[in-house]
Design goal:
heterodimer, A: mainly alpha, Alpha-Beta Plaits, two-stranded antiparallel ribbon, elongated, B: alpha/beta, Rossmann fold, Fumarate Reductase Iron-sulfur Protein, Chain B, domain 2, 6-stranded mixed beta sheet, 18 helices, 17 strands, 4Fe4S_Fe-S-bd (chain A), 4Fe4S_Fe_S_CS (chain A), cell inner membrane (chain A), membrane (chain A)
C-alpha cells in the first residue's frame, strides 16, 4: 500500500518537474493567435473597426472582445479567412463599421494645402511628408488608403483617388463558362 | 558535347499549318500613316520619354531612355515628326493603355548617324550597355532584355540558338533563317563571345528542312564551329527549358534558369538583332511578323515597331468571315481586344481567326481525372490537380503543386477530353497569387511603419519626460547649492512630493524677490516729489492699519508664484 503510494507520488513529482521545465524551456513569447490574426488583417490602420490599428483589433478578436466582421478594407474575403482561422461561421461585414471600397490613395491638392501638418500627425504609417507652413504631399506607395488624413484637413484639400489598374497589376479573370444556347 | 538527342516529358503534335505563310519570302511592309511606339514594350519595364510633341526625329533616334534594371531603350522606327505623346491601348490581353509616342513619318527614312560598334575593343560591360541602348530584347515573344541574359559572362558552357518555332502557324523564324542565315550566325558568334561560351548549338525543328539547310550552309561557310541540330517536331520543343533538355539532356529544376547550369538560350531573331546592332550600329526598329490564318495572302513581313495592327492586317487581306485576331500562336497567344494597337518587339504573329478555322470550343465538362493532361504536360506537372486548386481558389495548394513551373503552353487544354480551358485557370491563379504577394508585402510594410510610428511616439514622449525630469533635478540642485531659506525646508521634508517642495521653493523665491525689489522709479527725484511720496506712503500705512484685510498681500502672491513654477517646468 505504502509502496504504491510512494511510487505514484514519485511519478507525479517526476512528471510535474518535467512539465514545469518544459513550460519554462519552451515558453512562447506573445500570443501566436494574435500574430496569425494580424497577418490576415490588411494593415490599413484605419481604425474603422473601432480599435486604434490592426494589431489592437487582432488582440480584441483573440480575446473575444470584437467580432470578425468589423474590417471593411479586408472585405468579405478577409472575414472568410478569419472565420477559417478561428473556426467560426462566416458573416457579412457589419454595416456600422463601413463598407468595402476599391483601394484608393490619398492625394493632396498642393495648390490648396496651407501646411498645417494636421494630416501628417493623423497618418498612421508616416506616408505624408511636409513641414509647418510648407506644402505637404503623400508618398503614394506607402499610403494605405485609411482616410484618416481626410477629416483633420481644415481646407479639405485631400481627396481619395482609387488606384488605377496597370499592366503590371492587371489580373486574369476567373474563367467564366459561357452557357451556349442548345442547338 | 553529346551527339544524341534527349526527350522531354509529354508534348503534343498539333497540325503545323506552317506552309500557308512559309512559302513567300519576307516582304517589307509599307510605311503606315502613323507609328504608335509604346514606351512600354513589355509588362516588365518602361522607358522615359525624351522627345517632345512637334519634335523632328530621325530613323533610329532614341525616344525613350531605359528605366530600371530590366529597361531597354526605345527608338524612332523611321524619320518624321512626333505628333502626340499620349496613352494608347497596348497589345496586351488586358486592353489597358500605356504611354506611346505617335510619329508621323515623312517618308524620307533618314537615318540618324550610326556606326558599327567595335565590341572587340570595348569591355564586356560597354558592349552590354550598347545592346541596352540599342533596345535589344528577346524576339521569341517574352521580350526579356538581352543585356540581362548576357549579364553573367562566366560559367556558361553552351550557347543555344532557339530556332524551334514549335507553335503552329508561326513561320517568322523559319523565313528569317532561310533568308538571313549568315547574319544570324554572325550575331550568334557575337553572343558567344560576350557570354564566354565554348560551344554553340542551333536547335531547329525538323519540319523546317529549308531553314536547316540554309543554316548548315551558312555554318559551313562561316567556319565558327556552330552545330546545326534538327530536333523532332513536338510541341513545345521550342520552349527554353524543353529545348535545353532536348539538346543537352539537362533538366532545369524549379526556380532555376538555364544560366545556373551553364546553358544560355537565345532566339534566332535576337541573334539577328544583335548582329544589326553591333555590326551596323542599328537599334532594334523592326521585326518579322507572320500574318496568317483566315487570309488571302499569308506571309511574313518586316514590320516597323509601332505599326498599327489594323493597317498591317490589310496587307494579308483577311477573308470576310474573320471574327477576331490572335496575337502569338494559337496555343499560347491571346485574342486581341482591339485592332488599333501597335506591333511591339515581342509580336511574332497575327492570326486572323474565323469560326470555321478555329471553331469555338465545345462546352466545358466536369473533370473526370483521366490524367491525359499530366501525360501531355512538358513541365511534368499535374494539371488536373492545379485546375482543381485554381477553381476553388486554393492558391497555396496550387503553389505547392508547382504552379509556377507551368509555362502556359496549352498542351493540357489541347488534350483535355472535357474541353476545360485549363490554361485560363492557371493564368488566373498565377495573377491572383502575384496580387496577393503584392498586397502582403504592402501590408507588411504598413505594419512595420505603423509599429515604428508608435515606437517613435512613445520614444518622443519618454524623451520629453526625461528632459523635464532633468530640468527639475537641475533646479533642485541649484536651490540646494544656493543654501537659501527654502533649502532646509526641502531637506526637512524628504518624504514629501518633490513637486510640492519645488513649488514651495519657487514661492519662497518669489517672496524674497518681491521683498528685495524696490520701486524703480524713485531715483533722482526732486525734493517736493519725494515729500509727496512720503505723504502718500504715510496715508497708505494709515489705511493699512485701519483696513482689516492686512494679509491680502501673500494671497495675491500665490498665482504669480504658480505661474513661475509653470514656466520653469515648461522649459
Amino acid at each position: 500500500m505504502i509502496t504504491a503510494l510512494l511510487v505514484m507520488a514519485g511519478i507525479a513529482i517526476v512528471l510535474g518537474a518535467a512539465l514545469g521545465y518544459a513550460a519554462i524551456r519552451f515558453r512562447v513569447e506573445g500570443d501566436p493567435l494574435v500574430e496569425k490574426i494580424d497577418a490576415i488583417l490588411p494593415q490599413t490602420q484605419c481604425g474603422q473597426c473601432g480599435f486604434p490599428g490592426c494589431k489592437p483589433y487582432a488582440q480584441a478578436i483573440a480575446n473575444g472582445e470584437a467580432d470578425i466582421n468589423q474590417c471593411p478594407p479586408g472585405g468579405d474575403e478577409g472575414v472568410r479567412k478569419l472565420a477559417d482561422l478561428l473556426g467560426r461561421e462566416f458573416k457579412p461585414l457589419s454595416e456600422e463599421h463601413g463598407i468595402e471600397k476599391p483601394k484608393a490613395v490619398a492625394v493632396i491638392d498642393e495648390q490648396t494645402c496651407i501646411g498645417c501638418t494636421l494630416c501628417i500627425q493623423a497618418c498612421p504609417v508616416d506616408a505624408i511628408v511636409g513641414a509647418a507652413k510648407q506644402m505637404h504631399t503623400v508618398v503614394e506607395p506607402l499610403c494605405t488608403g485609411c482616410e484618416l488624413c481626410v477629416a483633420p484637413c481644415p481646407v479639405d484639400c485631400i481627396a481619395m483617388v482609387p488606384i488605377a489598374e496597370t499592366v503590371q497589376t492587371w489580373k486574369w479573370k476567373y474563367p467564366v463558362v459561357e452557357i451556349r444556347k442548345a442547338a | 558535347m553529346i551527339g544524341r538527342l534527349f526527350k522531354f516529358h509529354g508534348g503534343i503534335k498539333p497540325a503545323a499549318h506552317k506552309d500557308e505563310s512559309a512559302k513567300a519570302p519576307i516582304r517589307r511592309a509599307p510605311l503606315p500613316a502613323r507609328l504608335i511606339v509604346p514606351l512600354r514594350q513589355s509588362t516588365r519595364a518602361t522607358a522615359t520619354c525624351i522627345v517632345e510633341i512637334g519634335q523632328k526625329v530621325l530613323k533610329g533616334q532614341c525616344i525613350g531612355e531605359p528605366e530600371g534594371f530590366l529597361g531597354t531603350a526605345v527608338h524612332a522606327p523611321t524619320s518624321g515628326t512626333v505628333v502626340d505623346i499620349a496613352p494608347h491601348t497596348m497589345a496586351h490581353a488586358s486592353a489597358l493603355q500605356t504611354r506611346c509616342v505617335v510619329i508621323e513619318p515623312d517618308g524620307e527614312e533618314r537615318w540618324i548617324e550610326h556606326a558599327p560598334f567595335d565590341y572587340h575593343g570595348a569591355s564586356r560591360d560597354e558592349s552590354l550597355a550598347w545592346l541596352r541602348a540599342c533596345g535589344i530584347v528577346g524576339m521569341g515573344g517574352a521580350t526579356f532584355p538581352s543585356h540581362v541574359k548576357l549579364g553573367k559572362g562566366a560559367g556558361i558552357e553552351t550557347l543555344i540558338l532557339n530556332g524551334g518555332e514549335c507553335e503552329p502557324w508561326i513561320t517568322c523564324d523559319d523565313r528569317l533563317m532561310r533568308e538571313r542565315a549568315a547574319d544570324i550566325l554572325a550575331g550568334a558568334v557575337i553572343l558567344r563571345e560576350l557570354i564566354g561560351a565554348r560551344e554553340m548549338v542551333v536547335g531547329i525543328e525538323d519540319n523546317k528542312p529549308e531553314a536547316i539547310a540554309a543554316m548548315q550552309d551558312a555554318a559551313a561557310a562561316s567556319g565558327h564551329g556552330v552545330r546545326i541540330v534538327p530536333i523532332p517536331s513536338l510541341y513545345p520543343a521550342g520552349g527554353e527549358k524543353q529545348l535545353i533538355r532536348v539538346l543537352t539532356g539537362i533538366e532545369i529544376p524549379y526556380g532555376k534558369l538555364g544560366g545556373d547550369y551553364g546553358v544560355q538560350c537565345f532566339n534566332v531573331g535576337t541573334a539577328h538583332a544583335v548582329y544589326r546592332a553591333i555590326a551596323h550600329g542599328e537599334p532594334l526598329l523592326s521585326r518579322i511578323v507572320t500574318l496568317t490564318g483566315n487570309v488571302e495572302d499569308a506571309g511574313n513581313w518586316e514590320v516597323l515597331i509601332g505599326t498599327p495592327i489594323e493597317e498591317l492586317l490589310q496587307l494579308a487581306r483577311p477573308k470576310p468571315d474573320t471574327d477576331r485576331s490572335i496575337m502569338g500562336g494559337p496555343m499560347m497567344g491571346f485574342a486581341l481586344p482591339r485592332l488599333d494597337v501597335p506591333i511591339v518587339k515581342g509580336s511574332n504573329c497575327i492570326i486572323s481567326a474565323s469560326p470555321t478555322l478555329f471553331p469555338p470550343p465545345p462546352p466545358e465538362q466536369p473533370c473526370i481525372r483521366c490524367t491525359e493532361c499530366a501525360k501531355a504536360c512538358p513541365a511534368e506537372l499535374q494539371p488536373f490537380e492545379l485546375y482543381w486548386f485554381g477553381r476553388s481558389k486554393n492558391f497555396g495548394k496550387a503553389q505547392e503543386y508547382n504552379l509556377f513551373d507551368c509555362i502556359e503552353c496549352g498542351c493540357c487544354a489541347y488534350v483535355c477530353p472535357s474541353h476545360i480551358p485549363l490554361v485560363d485557370y492557371f493564368r488566373f491563379s498565377k495573377s491572383e497569387i502575384w496580387a496577393r504577394e503584392r498586397d502582403k508585402s504592402a501590408a507588411d510594410q504598413a505594419r512595420e511603419r505603423f509599429e515604428f510610428r508608435n515606437f517613435r511616439q512613445e520614444r518622443e514622449k519618454a524623451e520629453k519626460a526625461a528632459k523635464l525630469a532633468a530640468k527639475a533635478a537641475e533646479t533642485r540642485a541649484k536651490l540646494a547649492e544656493g543654501g537659501e531659506a527654502p533649502a532646509p525646508k526641502t531637506a526637512a521634508e524628504p518624504g514629501e512630493d518633490p513637486k510640492k517642495a519645488l513649488i514651495a521653493a519657487a514661492l519662497a523665491r518669489a517672496q524674497a524677490q518681491k521683498a528685495e525689489v524696490k520701486p524703480q522709479n524713485t531715483d533722482n527725484l526732486s525734493a517736493d516729489k519725494l515729500a509727496e511720496i512720503a505723504d502718500i506712503e504715510a496715508r497708505r500705512l494709515a489705511a493699512a492699519v485701519t483696513a482689516p484685510a492686512a494679509d491680502a498681500t501673500p494671497g495675491a502672491d500665490t498665482p504669480a508664484a504658480t505661474v513661475a513654477v509653470d514656466a520653469e517646468s515648461r522649459n
